[in-house]
Write a structure and sequence with these properties.
This protein is an alpha+beta fold and about 190 residues long. Helices cover about 20% and strands about 30% of the residues.
Length: about 190
C-alpha cells in the first residue's frame, strides 16, 4: 500500500541517495505535445538539498526536452525504483527549474554536489521543489545488479573544450528548441559563472 509524505525524511532521503539511477518525466501544456521520460545516472549528480528540494546536474548528449518543459510550465516527476532490497518505488511530483550556467545561483548549487560529479558537458542544474512525495510497492520491479557507472559520456565530453561543447550544443537538433518547438537550452550556450 502506497503512502504520501509531507517531506523527504531521513528514510526516504537515504533510499533516494542510494539508488544509482532515477527517471524524470515532463510534458508540455499542449495536448498533442510529446511527453518526455529520461533516465539519469552518474554517481553524485543528484542531491537532496532539503526536505522539499532536490537538484540534479543536466549534461549534454541528448535533446533538451526536460529543460523546454520546465521553462514552459515547470511540472516534473522524479522516480526511483529499488532494483535490490525491499521492493519500493518513490516518486516526487513538483515544480522544477533549470538554473543555467550564467545564473548567479549556479556556482552555489554546484558547490552542493561532490566535486567529482561536476564535469565537461554540464548544461544546467535542475532544481525540483517537491509538491507531493509518495512511495508504492515495487512488487513487479525486477531484481537487477548494479555493476557501475558507464564512463563513455564523461570520456566523450572531457575531450571537448568549452567552446567545442558550445558548438556541439548549437549544432544538435532539439537542444535550442524542443521537439514541439518550445524554447529549450539558451543558445549560444551561456558561459559558466562558477
Amino acid at each position: 500500500m502506497g503512502k504520501t509524505y509531507e517531506r523527504i525524511d531521513g528514510r526516504l532521503r537515504a533510499f533516494i541517495e542510494r539508488q544509482p539511477v532515477f527517471f524524470t518525466a515532463t510534458a508540455p501544456l499542449a495536448g498533442d505535445g510529446h511527453v518526455n521520460l529520461s533516465p539519469k545516472g552518474r554517481a553524485g549528480t543528484l542531491v537532496v538539498l532539503d526536505e522539499l528540494t532536490l537538484a540534479y546536474l543536466d549534461f549534454g548528449g541528448s535533446t533538451a526536452e526536460t529543460i523546454a518543459h520546465l521553462r514552459e510550465n515547470g511540472r516534473i516527476t522524479l522516480m526511483w525504483c529499488a532494483f535490490d532490497g525491499p521492493p519500493t518505488v518513490v516518486r516526487v511530483h513538483g515544480q522544477g527549474e533549470a538554473v543555467f550556467r550564467d545564473d548567479p545561483r549556479f556556482a552555489g548549487l554546484i558547490g552542493r554536489f561532490p566535486p567529482e560529479a561536476d564535469g565537461s558537458g554540464l548544461r544546467a542544474v535542475v532544481v525540483v521543489r517537491a509538491e507531493r512525495v509518495s512511495d508504492s510497492c515495487g512488487y513487479a520491479v525486477p531484481f537487477m545488479d548494479y555493476q557501475g557507472d558507464r564512463d563513455l559520456h564523461t570520456r566523450y565530453f572531457d575531450r571537448k573544450t568549452d567552446e567545442e561543447f558550445a558548438a556541439y550544443c548549437k549544432g544538435k537538433d532539439h537542444v535550442g528548441r524542443s521537439i514541439d518547438g518550445l524554447p529549450a537550452l539558451p543558445l549560444p550556450l551561456p558561459p559558466r559563472t562558477g
